[in-house]
Amino acid sequence: MTTTATHAPVDLYMSPRLLAPGGTPADHPTHEQRYGPLTSFHPAELLRAAAESGLTGRGGAAFPMYRKLASVAEAGRRTGRTPVVVANGSEGEPASAKDKTLLRLSPHLVLDGLCLAAEATGAGEAYLAVEDDATHLEAAVAERGDRDRIPVRVVRVPKRFLSGESSALTQHLDGRPALPRHQNPPVRERGVHGAPTLVQNVETLAHLALIARYGADWYRSAGTPTDPGSVLCTLHVPGREPRVVEAPYGLPLHRLLPLHTTSAVLTGGYHGTWIPAAQAAQLTLTAGNLGAGVLAALPADRCGPAETARVLRHLALESAGQCGPCLSGLPRIAAAFQTLAAPGPQGTTREDVSRWAGLVEGRGACHHPDGTVRLVRSALTTFAPELDAHAHGHCTATDRTPFLPVPRS
Ligand SMILES: Cc1cc2nc3c(=O)[nH]c(=O)nc-3n(C[C@H](O)[C@H](O)[C@H](O)COP(=O)(O)O)c2cc1C
Ligand code: SF4
């Protein structure tokens, strides 16, 4: 199942910066009317604006963007290889719909950002990678004619959780299976065709396009000094379709989620963290807790361990099975969590899961096992009362209908 998110207006919190108003896709004339034309930039000027803005990546790791831009440009100069830039719109995370929504409503903002990143790094090739039908994006590229310094190629990646991992993406662009590879050297040194490659989430690039137009101070006028700017979030709340909103960093979570009817909140998506609702009520949106931009408020009548078990099964099935942690560790943890999710004798299963989590962490070629372990550990802590009840043969949940979206396998 793919999440079909509605784009909800967010005037309550701030005027949306990234999403076209009214939920209507912006063609190029409308885009220029709204934001103004994009002028050409000297790479140093753009790097400085990116650094001063404090823009961080929106693909999960919140890495400062200017550092990646600078290191790809530098690797290009050092190796004599012309860099490649890739806009990552894969969004293999089943609970996330923010990148698809952004690409549907404001494709030119992403394409502007990609072209700016190409200018800043001196790239010779630019790709926009997406999971879904790319027809409207090809039309958007065609609409731009020869405005861009280098042409953008739109490519489709397989619908898989791992496809958007940066090395899987560069493998795919090289005609190989879209699977992660060992990160040494990293793709910013050797990526597509062995050239230094910048892989950047589409939302990050869209923010860059606005920073180039309006400056770092404007970008910082939303958010907090430590987490400046706004961010797209996919919200899952009981009784509503998932929806995508744009909110400033620093906004209290209770402004976005109905925490009074919630037992726990999943922050950051399936590589993220479960937090008890009472604790979530004290938190604000930060780059650190938002991961891939997913927030899910688990209804109080559902079973947290059962939800986690369904997600873990998906994560284990989605792993490429290339490395030990994914080959044996994740399936074992997922199967054990299935036992924990059902009321009945648990034996040493909880301790086993904790031990196995420690054994897989940091041992994969990519961060898939680490992200999965983060989810497991937070579930063991947040749902400790539910797991105790299960061990005594009870479950407090009254509704076993699945809440979090997990594709059928
Ligand atoms: C298993 C896995 C899946 C990932 N999937 C995506 C994805 O779908 N989209 C994305 O932008 N980043 C994804 N990432 C992160 C990318 O590897 C990369 O860090 C990101 O695209 C960099 O862009 P950013 O710095 O703008 O966030 C994934 C990482 C892992 C470990
Ligand atoms: S850690 Fe898992 S997902 Fe990552 S490359 Fe190895 S087998 Fe694949």
UniProtKB/TrEMBL annotation:
Keyword list, A-Z: 4Fe-4S, Flavoprotein, FMN, Iron, Iron-sulfur, Metal-binding
Cofactor(s) required for function per UniProt: [4Fe-4S] cluster; FMN
Region feature (Disordered): 1-36
Domain NADH-ubiquinone oxidoreductase 51kDa subunit FMN-binding, chain residue ranges per copy: 51-208
Source organism superkingdom: Bacteria
Occurrences of domain NADH-ubiquinone oxidoreductase 51kDa subunit iron-sulphur binding (ranges): 308-390
The keyword Ion transport appears for this protein: no
Pfam families: Complex1_51K, NADH_4Fe-4S
Family statement: Belongs to the complex I 51 kDa subunit family.
Protein name per UniProt: NADH dehydrogenase
Taxonomic source organism: Streptomyces graminofaciens
